[in-house]
Design goal:
With 262 residues, this protein is mostly beta strands. The chain has a single domain, classed as monomeric porin ompg (Porin). Helices cover 8% and strands 45% of the residues. It starts with 8 loop residues before the first helix and ends with a strand.
Length: 262
């Protein structure tokens, strides 16, 4: 993924302090706002926060024998609407990657939607939102550094007995930034996912698969397994297969720490 950044040493110190506070702050249970890679219909409840610390490590070396530095994402999201039928969250990410783009690590995101059964029995969950609103404008088609992917999306989800939850949606972003391997605009694609708590083994065990369409840097098929160590702390272990190595790079292993707090 070409929008990732390493967090500076000062940020790591802040992260450690926040993690300590979050673990001891309470036991509020809330779902994450992503599956493994793509946004989900889940929305952070009102007055609760969600801290994520995600790392992505390339599975292989580059053709020249070098290995791209690990991708690191530190994000904080909070619920902002006190309603049950209409919910919303806003947040930001500090994303680190090598190169000039690493000088502009700040990204913003937001989402609004309704959970399942909100309007009538059996109604699906619905969410619309945006993410990767970066702070560096530019045109990647002509080689400029740019982080303003400005992705907007709509997605619906439904949980079926025994089988699990399915989600489907569509996204569109900045055509000047999301490009294919030939440098042409490739800013749209589908969003698909399936996830399920494996309660037959343990209510703490979760698995998920998601897919983001497109030949741009975000297009990928992703697999993840999560274990909840506490009511408000879980870790996802996953693997990402990029649709195009010329844009997404070599596949990555991912570890994602998620902490919810009141």
């Amino acid at each position: 993924m070409n929008t990732a950044y390493r967090i500076r040493n000062a940020s790591r110190i802040v992260l450690a302090a926040v993690l300590l506070c979050a673990v001891s702050a309470g036991t509020a249970m809330a779902t994450p706002s992503t599956i493994v890679w793509i946004p989900s219909v889940d929305i952070q409840p009102y007055k609760t926060g969600h801290l994520t610390y995600d790392t992505y490590l390339r599975a292989k070396q580059n053709p020249d024998g070098s290995r791209t530095s690990a991708i690191v994402d530190l994000g904080l999201t909070g619920g902002v609407l006190p309603f049950q039928k209409i919910q919303a969250e806003v947040g930001f990410d500090l994303i680190d990657q090598p190169g000039n783009a690493g000088k502009h690590p700040l990204f913003f995101n937001g989402k609004v939607g309704s959970p399942e059964d909100a309007w009538f029995k059996g109604s699906p969950a619905v969410a619309v939102g945006g993410y990767n609103f970066g702070t560096k404008n530019g045109d990647a088609r002509i080689g400029e550094v740019a982080t303003n992917q400005n992705i907007v999306y709509a997605i619906v989800g439904k949980t079926l007995p025994v089988v699990g939850r399915f989600e489907a949606g569509y996204y569109a972003g900045n055509k000047k930034v999301l490009i294919d391997e030939n440098g042409k605009s490739d800013e749209k694609g589908v969003l698909l996912s399936w996830d399920r708590t494996i309660s037959e083994i343990s209510d703490k065990l979760w698995v998920g698969v998601d897919y983001q369409g497109g030949k741009n840097a975000l297009g990928a098929l992703n697999f993840g397994v999560s274990w909840a160590f506490a009511k408000n702390v879980s870790i996802i272990f996953g693997y990402d297969i990029y649709n195009k190595k010329q844009t997404g790079g070599e596949n990555t292993y991912t570890v994602q720490l998620d902490i919810n707090f009141p």
